[in-house]
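Here we describe the complex-level prediction in full. Unlike the single-chain runs in Section 2.1, the two entities below were treated as one system.
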Amino acid sequence: MKVKSLMDTKFLKIYPEYSIEYTAELMNKTKRFSTPVINKDEKLIGWINSIDIMVISDKSKPVSSIMSPVEDVILLNEEDPASDAVKKIVEYKVVSMPVLDSEKRIVGLVRNCDITKTLSKMYDIPVYNIFKSLMGELKGISWDELMESAAIVTKQTTGEEITGKEYEVRIKNSTFGQAIWSCGGLEKFFTGLIKIGEVAIARKVSCKNVIKK
Amino acid sequence: MKVKSLMDTKFLKIYPEYSIEYTAELMNKTKRFSTPVINKDEKLIGWINSIDIMVISDKSKPVSSIMSPVEDVILLNEEDPASDAVKKIVEYKVVSMPVLDSEKRIVGLVRNCDITKTLSKMYDIPVYNIFKSLMGELKGISWDELMESAAIVTKQTTGEEITGKEYEVRIKNSTFGQAIWSCGGLEKFFTGLIKIGEVAIARKVSCKNVIKK
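The structure predicted for the assembly as a whole is:
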């Protein structure tokens, strides 16, 4: 995934000759905390922030007089990996970042709320789907057998008495995000799943052995 | 994980009788885009935003004249699950949210950048650790056997010729986040992991059979 698939290509364009007053009005109307200042060639020349505007008394001056220079702006390139956007948001605690193309033209903005949305979407995968994948891999194990194995592992790890059917109900409305938070971390969640797969295989093998005997 | 473990308990307190000018100065000094307005009992009575302040010309008025009323503020309770904070940030696209205790006093703020940090930290888990957990579960399988199985699965799925040692080098610097982005999703990553475990077990079993024979 690249930065360009995270960015918003619709953004407020402020030109350096705009007055601070007009810039403030535009930002207020579009609900922008900060926005890029660009020239006629769509090249980024600065950055303007509502925090800086709100303490200015003479708003008739051009916005260029109070913008942050381009050297101080946290930038992204459209071909950068999306994980770079996450790293920069976390490191610099910015609300949004401009994205440039190979010719240094601004082509979009990556906003913190869009990153949160993308990250949280990954956590929104139903646990149910992960179990379906697990079943697909464990060839010959039925859904009911998998749920029973999950109930056995739950009993072993938490002491809780639960049936396979009850386990199924529990995971039906649970997401990956909720599961890792309640397990106490990603590694524990994976370990639990692997254990379930292992128990399912072990039960299958022991059944076959019984039949063979 | 609860909201209270995500929140920042140090935040800027604005009282309703503060002038807009003084509020703007305090917010500028502490670099806050928005902040709570509270009364003497620490109860939340409104919310103030740099976007609203920057278009005000007469800043001598009290901040209460332009704050958003408490009914319009997106709130969290300290005992809410942390996932509620993520959901609200994504739904309402806010930069930060006040957190209340059971007596409706404000006890902290949850900021979007803190949520991004927490979410991204989960993605920063080294793939190496996940394989170590997998090995712990697959009793009797050595690290080298696991890496060889991973190389076999890689060959099966991508056609790429890779040795167990090369696979080990690859995962050494890779995080869970990078892995799921490069696999094309969590389910595919997980399916691959299960496949690797399965191949490792199958090879072990077939070796034992050979020895038995």
